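Private note to self, pasted from the team thread so I don't lose it. Backbone tokens:
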């Protein structure tokens, strides 16, 4: 199945400062901003577009349960994940299983824009968190 680069997720401690950097220094544009308190997300999210390239700035809103907070505590701020758009998420997950690639338990969800997503297990991706997503909704 064809995979197309979709966006880069960046874990941040201060979303306001990061937005200023991405908009003033890199000349990007904020195209969306929202807060998600869904279990396994618990983040404030800003989507930045820079000449067609997308970045998700992810700031934890709950430092005891947010996976972004855990990531920052373990690895520091910076690139959290790389996302690839697939034609059909269900088929892509089936294909991953046939290839022996696991997904992170509990990571499958649909965001507020209808983007369905799941994270691949970094133990099977040489340590990189990779997201597969589709836009069925």
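Design output:
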């Amino acid at each position: 199945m064809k995979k197309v680069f979709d966006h880069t997720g960046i874990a941040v401690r201060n979303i306001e400062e990061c937005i200023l950097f991405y908009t003033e220094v890199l000349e990007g544009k904020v195209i969306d901003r929202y807060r998600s308190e869904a279990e396994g997300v618990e983040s404030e999210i800003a989507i930045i577009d820079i000449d067609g390239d997308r970045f998700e700035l992810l700031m934890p809103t709950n430092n005891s349960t947010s996976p972004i907070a855990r990531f920052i505590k373990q690895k520091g701020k910076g690139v959290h994940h790389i996302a690839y758009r697939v034609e059909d998420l269900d088929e892509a997950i089936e294909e991953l299983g046939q290839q022996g690639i696991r997904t992170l338990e509990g990571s499958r969800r649909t965001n507020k824009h209808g983007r369905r997503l799941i994270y691949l297990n970094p133990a099977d991706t040489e340590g990189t968190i990779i997201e597969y997503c589709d836009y069925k909704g």
